[in-house]
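Batch job 17 of 40 flagged for manual review because the log was empty.
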Amino acid sequence: MRVLITEDDDDLRVAVEAAVRGAGFAVDVAADIPAADEALSVNAYDCAVFDRMLPSGDSLRYVEQRRRAGWWVPVLFLTARDSVADRIAGLAYGDDYLVKPFEVLELVSRVRSLCRRSTPEPAASPSLRWRELALDSDRQEVRRGDIALNLTAKEFAVMRVLLAAGGEPVPRAELIASAWDEFVAPASNVLDVLIAQLRRKLGAPPVLHTVRGVGYVLR
């Protein structure tokens, strides 16, 4: 998933970019509206983050113009303007509104939620297979060879994403999003606990491995 971040404060832009990229997203950045407009003209994004007060003016007016032209990408506004009137104005054309100062992990969670909203859920395959692992959605069952694994609902959801990847690494953020709501931060250890449980249930030889700095992979 790809995110555009438009923020004129250099330190904040770097911090937000690092946090969103660290959560597994592809990220482009802009310091003002003209650069953001150029990026939007050549790239497809799942979410756009705009500081409201930029050197070229209020980004709300820019988003309003694009909305009237049929632009649908979810927008999160960042701003120090926290009055009720400002929030109402922002939500008239944006999809979320975060007041400065804010926690970066909360911003990442909100971005993840908006990206999910912009991407239709693919039809789930009723069955998936990777080597000796097989998943049956109708039975809510995962088997390793002839052995049925006793998985929780969250473990099953994570295994579905891993199996669908077919041996390719899956980012932490994607695995967390598959089993928890958007308010679970990518840095939370809930996924690590679940992965440890899955490894125990999958048995030997180990097939679920850590990809440092990315997430997990069946290999």
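Reviewer: the log was empty due to a logging misconfiguration, but the result itself is present. The radius of gyration is 20 Å. Unflagging and moving on to job 18.
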